[in-house]
Amino acid sequence: MKRIVYSVVLILISFIASFGQAIPNNGFENWTSMGSYNNPNQWSCLNDMSSPLGVYTCLKGTPGSVGTAYIKLISKNAIGVGCVPGVAVCGTIDQTTFLPNSGFPISGRPQSLTGKWQYMASGADQGFIAVALTHWDNTLGTRDTVATLYEALGGMAMSWATFTLPVNYLNGNDPDTCVIVLSASQANGATATANSYLYVDELAFSGVVAGIAPAPAPLGFDVSPNPATTKISVRVNDTKDKNATLKIINFQGEIVKTIEHLGTGMTTDVDIADLAKGSYIIQVKQNNKTISKNIIKQ
Length: 298
Fold this sequence. Notes:
The protein has one helix at 47-50, and strands at residues 31-33, 38-40, 58-61, 70-74, 76-78, 82-84, 87-89, 92-93, 100-102, 104-105, 110-120, 128-137, 142-152, 156-166, 168-169, 177-183, 197-208, 221-224, 231-236, 243-250, 255-263, 267-271, 278-286, 289-297. By secondary structure, the chain is an all-beta fold. The radius of gyration is 20 Å and the shape is globular. The two termini are 20 Å apart. The model is unreliable at 1-20 and 213-217 (pLDDT under 50).
């Protein structure tokens, strides 16, 4: 088996939105027995992939901070594979690429993610919690990133502690889909280290951020290829304003590349060879309107 290197990305599919913003199995009370191990209901992990090696990085902990159970994510070494990260996704995770490929329906604009945690990193490793909220734009036929959250776990919490993590909104749309990622190791997997752990219980969204969906902007753009390795080609639709600004934003919300005065009605090649593998948001602003698309750097 190849050495496991995984990158957390936002590969989201369109869902029929449901009312409410409850996180499925948020207290990790419900688990399914797979014989020699358990998997948390409505969450995905790497147990099914690593079980032939006798390695399980997602475990049912008891008792919970509240209730009878919680989730234990522990990065572990596996012979012939390397370090298998302790990671769980609320939705589904691809067992071949180790990338999240779906989430769960949501409505409303939550202000914060709250819960209970314990964690500790091993060596140079660092766990994290990440959230992505998205909205399907029927007019443009694209999935728009509404908000993100990325919290690197600094220091340690050796006993149950309460956390409140703010959600960062990028526009005024209401989301219809959410992905939550819990990981005991770094997002790029490059220095995932055995024995790094993250325990979580009682996840919930709290508060409401007001937002008014903007009128459809006279703007659209195409990006290809996607996924890409060294460069992407971006074509911005022609409008009265001939200048547009392009920004590429990483999963932590940092702007990693900016192109000013992007010509419209033409194709521009953008070099991404220097970017780390993973998911990025491309934002194009024109006529005081901004739209976003997700791309994957392989």
